Amino acid sequence: MEKYDYLIVGSGLFGAIFAYEATKKGKKCLVIEKRKNIGGNIYTENVKGINVHKYGAHIFHTSNKEVWDYINQFAEFNRYTNSPVANYKNELYNLPFNMNTFNRLWGVITPAEAQAKIEEERKQAGIVEPKNLEEQAISLVGTTIYQKLIKGYTEKQWGRKCTELPSFIIKRLPVRLIFDNNYFNNKYQGIPIGGYTAIIEKMLENVEVKLNYDYFEHENELKNIAEKIVFTGPIDKYYDYKFGKLEYRSLKFETQELAVDNYQGNAVINYTDYETPYTRIIEHKHFEYAKSLGNEEDEEVSKFTIITKEYPMTWDETKEPYYPVNDEKNNLLYNKYNELAEQDKDVIFGGRLGTYKYYDMDKIIEEAINSLKNEKII
Ligand code: FAD
Ligand code: UDP
After folding, report:
1. What is the residue with the minimal CA distance to atom 6 of ligand 1?
2. Residue 192, preceding bond cis, omega within 30 degrees?
3. Which domain covers residue 267, as residue numbers?
4. One of 21, 236, 249, 271 is an active-site residue; which one?
5. Which distant-in-sequence residues (6+ apart) come within 8 Å of 317 by Cβ?
6. pLDDT one-digit tens code per residue, 229-277
7. 249 strand-pairing partners
8. 59 with 71: CB under 8 angstroms?
9. What spacing in Å lies between the alpha carbon of 355 and ligand 1's midpoint?
10. Which of 138, 169, 200 is the last residue of a domain?
11. Same domain, 236 and 335
């Protein structure tokens, strides 16, 4: 007899939602997590009053009301709006590309002038049908923006030339002919007051969780422990890389505490030149501490700040796989694993790594809800 209905591998957002809903319906779940803490990549740690995003800046955004209502059961969100600034060799530009950016770059005043400038650069480049990220970017925003704000950042982030990258990566970057520095086009956006970890803690409140517990180190003892496995780790590793390894990008986070109140004046500054080895610096307090976000001045927190530099890295098995590399080659390989997964009725693959998809949190919630519906749990 199996002891559990579900063995859930991974305590990230997907695993936690699955465990929460299944437990609520009387299913017995065991969550195992190889890290020393729950939450996966949305884990935040409270350091003397500042919620530190340990695995990179996480801003919740969605246009799906069902998803927004779902996550709001677990936390109240502030009205933080992501408006990153790009630093290109000490020239500062607003992101995403909007009238503020175009004015700073070219001195243009009106949307028509900005459009004409982009059009002129596009024409000069002579691209008819974009075949890769470089061509896609130039045909979206012209050569100047590509050179200053896209090329260096993207080549650092992905470790490849823009001519060798798929264009879909850049489609995530909005272009606007209005003076609006809001990075996301979504209807709802914010940061959970109290941090993301509190959300996962609530979800896992009534669930048995084992930390520092890697599925692959305990495969034998876990074999018949549950009716089904919900696996949110890398799908290729689950199948022992039998068709070959999928590619991922990894990151190194370098966090520092500094004895200044305000280091960079914004939560996120991107370094878009190629030479600076990191892609962005996060100053964590700005996600929550601006007065406009409803916070009273906190004297303790005004004495220091915490920043994190994010360095992209080539992935190997000793590193965390943060980003799937969804190019054609990897997607074809993933399809082979997915075919196996579809035959395997005892395992449900979920989350960013289980489905090898560059999903944001809102999409993960949607997917978790779909999986729960498939299992007839909700
Ligand atoms: P994960 O959070 O990766 O959880 C998987 C868990 O499984 C991990 O805790 C892992 O340790 C565990 N695990 C893996 N293998 C094993 C094993 N063998 N045994 C036991 N446990 C295992 N999304 C947004 O919406 N907004 C943002 O601003 C945003 N910014 C991001 C910035 C960065 C740098 C990154 C990397 C991602 C960002 N995301 C953002 C995406 C977001 O992190 C993901 O959508 C979400 O965290 C995925 O949840 P998950 O449960 O699928 O995976
Ligand atoms: N990007 C860029 N310049 C920037 C920010 C992003 O060229 O200043 C490109 C880069 O290729 C990146 C992609 O846009 O991989 C998506 O960026 P986003 O910040 O949305 O990605 P995240 O890393 O947060 O998932």
Report:
1. 10
2. no
3. 249-314
4. 249
5. none
6. 999 999 999 999 999 999 999 999 999 999 999 999 999 999 999 999 9
7. 314, 323
8. no
9. 12
10. 169
11. yes
Q: Are residues 17 and 119 in the same domain?
A: no
pLDDT for the residue 174: 64
Tens of pLDDT along 36-74?
A: 999 999 999 999 999 999 999 999 999 999 999 999 999
Closest C-alpha among 225, 245, 220 to residue 8: 225
Are 361 and 13 contacting, i.e. CB atoms less than 8 angstroms apart? yes
Per-residue confidence (pLDDT) for residue 322, from 0 to 100? 97
Q: What is the mean pLDDT of residues 100-129?
A: 94
At position 149, the amino acid (one-letter code) is L
Instruction: Identify whether 222 is part of a domain.
Output: yes
Cα 214 to Cα 43: distance, rounded to the nearest angstrom: 18
Does residue 84 line the site of ligand 1, with CB under 6 A?
no
Cα separation of 61 and 41, whole Å? 16
> In this structure, is residue 9 part of a structural domain?
yes
Q: φ, ψ for residue 339 (rounded to 5)?
A: -60, -45
Q: Please state the pTM of the whole predicted model.
A: 0.97
Residue 312 and residue 158 in contact, taking contact as beta carbons nearer than 8 Å: yes
Which of 272, 293, 314 lies at the terminal end of a domain, its last residue? 314
Ligand 1 centre to CA of 17 (Å) is 13
The domain total for the chain is 3
Q: Which residue has the tokens 């990549």?
A: 41
Instruction: Scan for tokens 């498939």, then name that residue.
Output: 374
Among 121, 288, 310, 362, the one annotated catalytic: 310
Closest CA to 258 of 309, 224, 198, 213: 309
